[in-house]
Design goal:
Layout lengths: L1 H20 L1 E11 L2 E10 L7 E5 L4 H12 L6 H8 L9 H29 L2 E11 L7 E10 L8 E7 H14 L14 H5 L5 H20 L7 H8 L3 H18 L1 H15 L8 H51 L4 H77 L5 H14 L3 H93 L1
Antiparallel strand pairs: 1-2, 2-3, 4-5, 5-6
Helix pairs in contact: 1-2, 7-12, 11-12, 12-14
Subcellular location: Cytoplasm; Endosome membrane
Family: Belongs to the sorting nexin family.
GO cellular component, one term: phagophore assembly site
Amino acid sequence: MDFAFLVVVIGIGGLLAIAFWDITVTLENGPHIGDLPTWSLELRISDNQSLIAYQLRFCSAFLNLILLSLHRRAPTRNPQPFEDLLEDPEYDQLSDRDELEANLRDLIQDLATVRSRAMAADFSEGRLETFVGSPQKELAGTQNQYVSYQVTTKSDFQSFQKPEFTVRRRFTDFVFLYKQLSKEYPQCAVPPLPDKHKMEYVRGDRFGPDFTQRRAHSLHRFLKRISLHPVLRRAMLVINFLESPDWNQHMKGRSSRAASGSEQGSTGFVDALADTFVNTFTKVHKPDKRFIEVSERANKLSEDLANVEKVTVKVARRQGDLETDYADLATQCQKLTALEPAVDGTLTSFAASVTTTSQGFKSIHDHTDQNYLTSLRDMDAYIQALKTLLRTREAKQLDFEQLSEYLAKSAADRDSLASSHGAGMGASGFLRSKVEDFRGIDHDQARRQRVRKLEVEIERLTSEVELSKKSSEAFDEHTVKEVADFERIKSIEFKDTLGDLADAHVDFFQGTIETWEGFLEDMRKEEDQRKAVGAS
């Protein structure tokens, strides 16, 4: 009775899981074994783009298990068909009830695997584009005023309700997203946010257009890096951030759960701080050449970016000076019109052309200062995030090496005790022997107790070393993937930023050419008119 009830409960749970997963189930009759039918199961996940057909023999699933249970319980049934089932060579591995239950568990795991792979394919292969811009001051004139940014998303993910939608988020929302991703994905180099400790907060200019536009560009790069990351782009927190209209409630719920978790894990923070302090002054014995090369390339790139930033700062300053000079020249030309009325039209046209050129210098200066220069600093911060990941990986390796050394030391102490036969171990053994004599303790019994304690400790350390080794190796492999993702995202970002900078310069020079060609054309027309008037 208990077995049949367990089968029914598992079957109902499986059906509920299938309904929850939005999976279409089709059962087709298969060959009969004795008087028991077998079934084939076809699963189709409701996805317009990624249709997954998964064929399984359901003779190892809960339907045959239920039929088998009913067959065993029915008093009027002939047991011969069941014996035929047991004797069938094709299904001899499914004759045992435990194996049937094991196959049922395997089927449930297969269903979960199909679902997770379908979601991973949907999120990793789909299109996800994000755009951040249009900073807007909210609650202006009040004590709680802040700046919100428009986040536009274009995607073909089936998880989104629309292919294109827009929400507004403030900077604290981005900070919350970054902190949660860093906490939930410690194995990833989570893209950093722009630094909040700026002089604009001290001077009160954090609501000015220059600061908000610069921050909008940085936030755009932050979300774009996440959208290009194969793991972070699948995070449900990111999906909710991009789409959810109730983001504040979602954020409060996560904050409350995080607060309760932090109260329970306060000792973990102290342990992590102690490990960080110890690892800072300890070097790994066998550094991995792969990550040494990555660290060297990262340091070299940081130095190159610093040099480019210095040059770019000078270029932006020069562009700003030219903007001011051209604006002053236009103002002085306007003043000359009152002194030289005979060339009023020419001076006015010239002043207008100079003003347009000044505006062009302002546009190129704003792009260089707010977009390109900020992108260099953001990339340097991203490199620091990669270095932090490398240090975390090194700490994993260091933990494994220290545990291995501790295990080797414990094994050596055990072997020394086992072979010493009470002779002691150097000065410490001599002192221990004298203390035991003073306390009247049997040396052989004390030695055997120490050996037993060491054996227990060695057994515990052996399991911890194995776990630490697996964790370190897994983290190494994931770090290799993270480095590859970083290089790919870096290449895309450099291509975009340099392409935008080139487009901005092309627009500037093209606009300047059109402005002064138009001015020269006006001068030719005016000269032709004067000649025509003089000839007549």
